[in-house]
Write a structure and sequence with these properties.
CATH class of the largest domain: Mainly Beta
Number of domains: 2
Radius of gyration: 22 Å
Number of strands: 8
CATH superfamily of the largest domain: Immunoglobulins
Number of helices: 1
Shape: elongated
CATH architecture of the largest domain: Sandwich
Distance between the termini: 76 Å
Structural class: alpha+beta
Order of helices and strands: EEEEEEEEH
């Protein structure tokens, strides 16, 4: 079983998708690459990774306000057939993506209110 220690750093932006950066120790001997899988709640990991590559760090988007879990799997591509062999799951880590901050939600509400008032003003001017 492959155990890859994870270290992560969440980076959020209220007007864009939040992201988390994952890092792990390289496997020796070096595999062809790594797959990162993500799931929410008690849902099983999907068959398709959220990231694939040979680096030992990656940044992936995460849903705001949700707890997500990650595992890594090393993989080897080899042989004449080019079959891919994948390791077992690494240790699982979880990350709670913070929801929009109240300040940003307030700014969004003010923008919506301003747009509504401008539309009302245009409608009133059109009727005069």
């Amino acid at each position: 079983m492959l155990v890859l220690p994870f270290f992560f750093n969440g980076i959020g932006n209220a007007f864009a998708s939040q992201q988390v950066t994952l890092a792990w120790d390289a496997v020796d001997p070096a595999p062809s690459g790594y797959h990162i899988y993500m799931r929410t709640a008690d849902i099983p990991y999907p068959d398709v990774p959220v990231w694939e590559g040979s680096d030992t760090t990656c940044t992936v988007p995460v849903p705001e306000g949700k707890e997500v879990a990650f595992v890594a799997r090393a993989y080897l591509v080899g042989g004449i057939s080019g079959d891919t062999a994948e390791s077992a799951d690494s240790n699982e880590i979880t990350y709670m993506a913070p929801p929009d901050s109240p300040k940003n939600l307030l700014l969004q509400a003010i923008e919506q209110l301003t747009a509504g008032l401008q539309a009302l003003k245009q409608a009133l001017l059109a009727t005069n």
